[in-house]
Amino acid sequence: MKIAPAVKKETGHIALGTAVGVAVMLVVFAVLGYFSAGVAVSGILGGAIAVGNFFLLGLTVQKVADGQPEDRARKWMQFSYNMRMLLMVVWLIVALAVPFFNWVAALVPLLMPRLTIGVMQATGMYHKEKGDTLPLNEGGNAKE
Amino acid sequence: MLDKAIVLAGCAIGAGLALIAGIGPGIGEGYAVGQACSAIGRQPECKGDVTSTMLLGCAIAETTGIYGFVTGLLLIFVAPGMFTGMLG
């Protein structure tokens, strides 16, 4: 399956934002004197899982936007959501159960994509340009 | 003994309630995707824009579910030890 440019672009933004966020988090850990190999590994793995989760979401969105019937698209999206949540829960349980990992450093990167989107919206990176869609007629369909 | 039992019960009930937060995003995302399919059907030229908007919208919606899961897991794994430790 060819990856859509929109998915690549947004995943790139999220990956960049998450990488910066994880770096800041590790610096904060170091300043507070809690830095260790476990913290670094937890942060990096947590960031990778957050970006991977977003990428899988992108692939799902691409698949359902590819002309699937509405009912089937809805079911596929809900199935994908459940699977991705399961992945997150497994990672969090591993981070909480294995003493090597630091659960705070494992948890914080999972929230970075939301923070990145907030920053993108606040800085105007994600403002739709006017006039890039066709006007609609009274029935809600695109005018020719 | 009874104090610890009450704390553990509270944590278990709280975790259960927190996990309810996972239901909302699933329903919401399904609804959003259904509407996006309709939009793409009406205006196929906007597929890229709709995909982009839906992707970010779904990511935002999912964060609510993650908050719920995190709260639930912390109540199961971290809070009991912390609170029962306080009781001595």
UniProtKB/TrEMBL annotation, chain B:
Gene3D superfamilies documented for this protein: lithium bound rotor ring of v- atpase
Domain V-ATPase proteolipid subunit C-like span(s) in chain numbering: 13-75
Membrane-spanning ranges: 54-79
Membrane topology: Multi-pass membrane protein
Domain of life: Bacteria
InterPro entries to which the protein is assigned, alphabetical: ATP_synth_csu_bac/chlpt, ATP_synth_F0_csu, ATP_synth_F0_csu_DDCD_BS, ATPase_proteolipid_c-like_dom, F/V-ATP_Csub_sf
GO-annotated cellular components: plasma membrane; proton-transporting ATP synthase complex; proton-transporting two-sector ATPase complex, proton-transporting domain
Keywords: ATP synthesis, Cell membrane, CF(0), Hydrogen ion transport, Ion transport, Lipid-binding, Membrane, Transmembrane, Transmembrane helix, Transport
Site (Reversibly protonated during proton transport): E62
Keyword Transmembrane helix: yes
GO MF term set: lipid binding; proton-transporting ATP synthase activity, rotational mechanism
Places the protein is found: Cell membrane; Membrane
Main location: membrane
Function: Key component of the F(0) channel; it plays a direct role in translocation across the membrane. A homomeric c-ring of between 10-14 subunits forms the central stalk rotor element with the F(1) delta and epsilon subunits. F(1)F(0) ATP synthase produces ATP from ADP in the presence of a proton or sodium gradient. F-type ATPases consist of two structural domains, F(1) containing the extramembraneous catalytic core and F(0) containing the membrane proton channel, linked together by a central stalk and a peripheral stalk. During catalysis, ATP synthesis in the catalytic domain of F(1) is coupled via a rotary mechanism of the central stalk subunits to proton translocation.
Sequence similarity: Belongs to the ATPase C chain family.
Protein name: ATP synthase subunit c
UniProt organism field: Allofournierella massiliensis
Taxonomic lineage of the native organism: Bacteria, Bacillati, Bacillota, Clostridia, Eubacteriales
